Amino acid sequence: MIHLVVLLSCLGLIQATALPDLTVSNERYTGKVVGGSNAHPSMWRWQASLQYDNWNTGSFAHICGGSLISSLYVMTAAHCILDMQLRFYRVVLGDYDLYKYEGGEQPRSVSRIIMHPGWTGDLVNGNDIALLKLSSPVYGNSYTEIANFPYPDQTLPNGFTCYITGWGLLATGGTTPDILQEAPIPVVEHSVCASPGWWSTAVKKTMVCAGGDGKTSGCQGDSGGPLNCYTDGAWRVHGVVSFGPASNCNIYTKPTVFTRVSSFMDWIYSEMV
């Protein structure tokens, strides 16, 4: 799915906001995204699973993540779109364990694929973002919710803690989880991430870096999924998982790179018609 690299407001910096306690009845859901754990059920209700039917047999498999941004649209990474044949895709909202029916799932076929016009197929050129129009609206319930956006052009300070979520590999070359994973992951500001020894010129200002500690990262299968950050009193999707290092998902000074959602607000709203 990814070769060179994997996978994966008011203007200016926002102030750091204390994260709410994610414990549920003092119980932590353990397990393992790389370096993570089983997500809290119904916590990340905008998380989507993009699935592909490789042989057109009606048997779909998870390939990427996504975020529900309206009752009819899901945002994902452009590199997750393997071809433009709509019948090969479906999106599932409200899922937690991909291999169990739990009653909250809402599968939808895709009626339109909208690629960003600046997407060239080269991850380091940026614009790795796409919208999927669903065949029918998704309804909100205790399992599904529309994501909040950041402010236009909003950026995050260095070290700000966000959460990456997805069903990607638990380690490079490892296994994929049944249950949605979550992991706290610190933002790496652009001036650091674009410096020599980090991602250098591969990172643009329309991207967000997070991680790079050699412990926590996105990996194959997490692409397209959200970077969830608690800002301005709400969880907001600040990023779309785009890429990471090809040799190992969690390399020190090579953080996971996300498409920065706040850079694409005008385009997103112009396409959701």
TrEMBL record:
Q: Which residues form the Peptidase S1 domain?
A: 33-273
**Which residue stretches, if any, does this entry annotate as coiled coil?**
none
Kindly list the GO molecular function terms attached to this UniProt entry: serine-type endopeptidase activity
Domain of life per record: Eukaryota
Q: Which SMART domains match?
A: Tryp_SPc
Gene3D superfamilies according to UniProt: Trypsin-like serine proteases
Q: Which GO terms describe its cellular component?
A: extracellular space
Q: Which residues form the signal peptide?
A: 1-16
Which UniProt keywords are present, listed alphabetically?
Disulfide bond, Hydrolase, Protease, Serine protease, Signal, Zymogen
GO aspect biological process, one term: proteolysis
The record's annotation in PANTHER family points to: CHYMOTRYPSIN-LIKE ELASTASE FAMILY MEMBER, CHYMOTRYPSIN-LIKE ELASTASE FAMILY MEMBER 3B
**Protein name listed in UniProt:** Elastase-1-like
Q: Which organism is it from?
A: Astyanax mexicanus
